[in-house]
Design brief:
The chain is of the alpha/beta class. The chain is built from five helices and eight strands, in the order βαβαβαβαβββαβ. The longest helix has 18 residues. The radius of gyration is 14 Å and the shape is globular.
Length: 156
Amino acid sequence: MEQILISACLLGQPVRYDGRSCPFECPRINLWQAQGLLVPVCPEMDGGLHVPRPPAEITSGGGPGVWAGTARVKTREIDVTDFFIKGAQAALNKAVACGIKTALLKQKSPSCGSCRIYDGSFSRSLVEGMGVTTALLRQNGIMVFGEDQIDELPFF
């Protein structure tokens, strides 16, 4: 079986902006972890951000807009786009080094969201879109799914 890139917070690692995790309780995850198939990643930490950190959201355009240079990732106070770009590149490097073709990432995250992210207004409003890491992984042929899409993984 192939390895899967997975958001570290889904495995219970306290790497989220607020210092928490969001463990995804699922028998398949437990089995894959026991089999050594899961490769954890936290693009925000790998990009140089610390825990805890201020929440960040992407301006209009989402992850693809960041890569096109038309969108930015910001906290309420500062632009953190460069950290998100660096972290996304680290996640891609890890995936390529491990021959990974599939990722299971945290939905709604400005890094990892695969179909829904916050709209950049800090009003807790969700929009269709993807995070910076998801956009880069998909641009490089890696399939990305959110934890709510685990049943859609193509080979499990």
